[in-house]
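Predict the 3D structure for this chain.
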Amino acid sequence: MDKLIVEGGRPLVGETRISGAKNSALPVLIASLLSGQPLRVGNIPHLRDITTTLELLGRLGVQLSLNDRMTVEADASQVVDLCAPYDLVKTMRASILVLGPLLARFGEARVSMPGGCAIGSRPVDLHLKGFAAMGAEVSVTDGYIEARAARLQGCRIALDQPSVTGTENLMMAATLAAGETVIDNAAREPEVVDLARCLNAMGARISGAGESRITVSGVPRLGGADHRVIADRIEAGTYLVAGAITGGDVRVRDVDPALLGAVLAKLRDAGAEVDSGGDWVRVRGGGRLGAVNVQTAPFPGFPTDMQAQFLMLNCIADGTATVTESVFENRFMHVEELRRMGASIRMNGNTATVRGVARLSGAPVMATDLRASACLALAGLVADSQTVIDRIYHIDRGYHCIEEKLAGLGARIRRVTASQWRRETERKAA
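Done. Predicted structure below.
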């Protein structure tokens, strides 16, 4: 199992390009199932979750081609299987998104209950209740969701919470339903808007994406399209935090600053200098940052996927602040690992109270989920000795070559295999 080895103490300086958004690319690729004509998707990030999605689509019978510019062409004209099996779905919760397109286009689907990061309950009943309201017969048997409908019927669906995948799944299904579907309390995230843009390019009739009410007028069929995935706002935010905490000067490009409003506001509150242009953002750290209170919320609030990075920022900031997680109930597993490095964090339910310390100390730590992995890499950048991060397969699900991008900014970071690390430790012991 690979590890990341981080030697702290260097300010990050330079520019890095932001990859396409994983959380946009996954549903957009899956949207290819809605049409018998090719969908071409550009700016696809090279990530483990993308590989899993392409493998899943291929298993269903989608013909796929990928060029060296990370553009995927997906042709679902010859779908041969309507079952998404456990061996693929178990590693990625976004796999549930194949349910809506398969059900809408083919009238049936069988999808294993999904897996993914262990950050808390992300129940699929929002999806299932929505499909049932659209006239589908839905059941769960032996760990598989089974759904059937001659043709889905448009209706009004009020989501119990603004679930991103719930909104996306129901929106995709509604594109081929008979009549009009209204989704109330819909997720407003930019990735939902990006999916709606792609679907409309394919011939769908969707309005209201980015607002709390989305209206979809069903059409008999969808066609092909060309679509470019938006930039990954979480990757961008992670590198900006890295620049700020190291007292560096980091510029990220190929990203829309409007996607980062809440993150940039908190960086400014912490004392970082932030500038932006049409497709770039620059952050300069300077002296010691100040502690900032954070409470996660659905977009346009502070993103839950940036919670771990800002908790880490507070670990070395001047003062005391609280970080409250309002989206997932089990997203503080990185706290114990940060404590191993000398952080002062006190937990009370879904709120962490963080008292900044002068420095962190390098230590062997273990990644517990995708964003916790990035948080520990950031901690290593400011620690006063070597940090060894284990179980980094999590980070490969959401960050393309994070060690290469950080090294390009001046970080001392490298990836080693388990055997390489064993030989290194044996040499030191000798």
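The chain has 14 helices and 24 strands.
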